[in-house]
Amino acid sequence: MAPRPGDCRVERKTETAEGCYLYCIMGSGEARSCDTAGIGGRGDVVSIINYEDLSCATSPSPLGEYAVTRENLMAHQKVVEEAMKDHTVLPVRFSTIAKSPDDIRGVLRKRYAEFKSLYEKMEGKVELGLKALWKDMGRVFKDIAEEDMLVKRLKDRTAGALPGKGFDAGVELGRAVKAALERKKEETAGKIISAFRDISVDFRTNKTHGDNMALNAAFLVNESDMVEFDRRVKELDSRGGGDISLRYVGPVPPFNFVNIVIEWN
Amino acid sequence: MAVEKSMASSSLVEVIDRILDKGVVIDAWVRVSLVGIELLAVEAREVCASVVTFLKYAEAVGLTAQEAATA
């Protein structure tokens, strides 16, 4: 059957084939149009596709992968953040494109129970992101050099190493320092997480970026506990003694707590 | 300065941290193309646990580059 105007059912054959870009899955009912433009810079309108009491925010898009550029990433994020103002959202991963609205309805139908239960689990909750960074790495390494027994021993040994032995000893020392830094990160991260555990439904720790990042965490928090969470972040910030700087984001779409992998067919 | 709370979209790092590999993943074969961004540099730096990296850590606790290079 030939595609009707306004229907994005097309074969996934040519580069110009049109599909539907997915942003997030939501409940339905109060669904309204989204003022944020869709991904791709063509000014595509974001609209809602419904299946039973679930819905999906989508916009027309060529079939094909999107490059990881600031513009594309932000376009995806902005639509999800906009939807999140009014709805509980299950965010969809970047660059997910369906062949047609029917394919999207098909996925919602097949995995209805799973989406529904995850939706109910996320209802009334928000994700908050917290990163902790050491301000003075010179001091962190100085502490390691003074406190870590292995590092201390290897350092003394390396300093007095015979010519020709220094290189390997240096590598061994470096390895010990790296391990000690990892332990110090875990210890610091553990202390920070414990300050929020009783007001978090769940939490995840992600990979840290760089030596100075001790913690990269996401917390799932009841909306009603958000004010208390804010308060504790401020308290932690002032209690940190100036050693650590915090980066606090939220509410953000619950990417860290929605992990479903599905195939189209 | 006191900690500020912001939306994720105010920081590219916060966005990258989330939307590339988390959330509802449909069609598992669709890979994200890492095209021309600093993310690659970040990954490379983290993966690179080379000799040079270890020597950098050794230097960080006070071993001088000269001592380390006495090979």
Describe the model.
The complex is a heterodimer of chains A (265) and B (71). By secondary structure, chain A is α+β, with helices and mostly antiparallel strands. Chain A contains seven helices and ten strands. In chain A, strands 1, 2, 3, 4 and 5 form a five-stranded antiparallel beta sheet that branches. A four-stranded antiparallel beta sheet of chain A has the order 7-8-6-9. In chain A, α4 (137-147) crosses α5. Chain A is elongated. Residues 1-14 of chain A have low confidence and may be disordered. Chain B is mainly alpha-helical and 71 residues long. Chain B is built from four helices and two strands; from the N terminus they run βαβααα. Mean pLDDT of chain B is 69; it is low at 30-37. At the A-B interface, β1, α1, β5, α4 and α5 of A face β1, α1, β2, α2 and α3 of B.
Structural features:
heterodimer, A: 265 residues, alpha+beta, 5-stranded antiparallel β-sheet, disordered N terminus, B: 71 residues, mainly alpha
In short:
With 265 residues, chain A is an alpha+beta fold.
- Which quaternary structure do these chains form? heterodimer
Beginning-to-end CA distance, first to last residue of chain B: 46 Å
C-alpha geometry of chain B: flat
Reported for the largest beta sheet of chain A, the result is: 5 strands, antiparallel
Q: How widely separated are the two ends of chain A?
A: 20 Å
Q: Characterize the largest beta sheet of chain B: strand count, sense, and whether it forms a barrel.
A: none
Please estimate the helix content of chain B: 40-55%
